[in-house]
Amino acid sequence: GAVVSQHPSRVICKSGTSVKIECRSLDFQATTMFWYRQFPKQSLMLMATSNEGSKATYEQGVEKDKFLINHASLTLSTLTVTSAHPEDSSFYICSARDRRGVYNEQFFGPGTRLTVL
Amino acid sequence: QQQVKQSPQSLIVQKGGISIINCAYENTAFDYFPWYQQFPGKGPALLIAIRPDVSEKKEGRFTISFNKSAKQFSLHIMDSQPGDSATYFCAASKDTGRRALTFGSGTRLQVQP
Question: Is residue A102 pLDDT above 80, yes or no?
Answer without folding.
Answer: no
